[in-house]
Amino acid sequence: MTAGPYPVLEPVSIERLRPTQITVGMREVKEKRRRWHELPKEKKDEFLGRHMVPAIFGPKERYYVVDHHHLARALHEEGAKQVLVSVVADLRMLEREAFWVFLDHRGWVYPYDADGVRQGFDAIPKSVDDLVDDPFRSLAGELRQAGGFAKDTTPFSEFLWADTLRRRMTRKSVDKDFDAALRDALAFAKSQDATYLPGWCGPSKDE
């Protein structure tokens, strides 16, 4: 199989999917589980057809997810067996080390732990079931939903917001009162201090 100018779609077992990041926001996973659970049975196939998981076809013919980690984890926890995968690149010819270096340079891997510290590629889980919770990733996701910033094509843009928020407040404060943390995050997102972050949509200086 060779990826051409159009995505190559095929059903893949969720258990075969390999992450390209270490963490997810479990609040977001929980919300996606709720939405899936509430879908009528006849709508589930339609939903999966509209939410394809982009992945790299890598060494040993493994699929490495480059987006929708939260959805894959949520579907796995809900007992779904397969998802449609959109193959965005075929890198089966690369050796393991060269593969990860290539993904790193393309912005297709995010090997940072729940404290925002970069780890070796070996720390990336081999299953979506082993992804680790990062409350600040949940906070960034909720912040975007609340209009704090716009969806952006920058790779791992919500992680960039999460890491910035991590440096401005403690994990204890997020765990203790998520709503208060979200209000603080929203105030920051609308300030001039956040203009460098992807998707910033705060007020201009003239407003």
**Which shape, going by the Cα principal axes?**
globular
Low-confidence stretches: 1-6
Find the CATH superfamily of the largest domain.
Conserved hypothetical protein from pyrococcus furiosus pfu- 392566-001, ParB domain
Q: Kindly report how far apart the N and C termini lie.
A: 53 Å
- Residue share in helices? 25-40%
Number of strands: 7
Give the total of domains. 2
What's the CATH C level of the largest domain? Alpha Beta
User: How would you spell out the order of helices and strands?
Assistant: EEEHHEEHEHEHHHH
Count of DSSP helices? 8
- Secondary structural class: alpha/beta
Task: Tell me what portion of residues adopts beta-strand conformation.
Answer: 5-15%
Short recap of the structure:
The protein is α/β, with parallel strands linked by helices and 207 residues long. The chain starts with 7 loop residues before the first strand and ends in an 18-residue tail after the last helix. Helix 1 packs across helix 3 and helix 5 packs across helix 6.
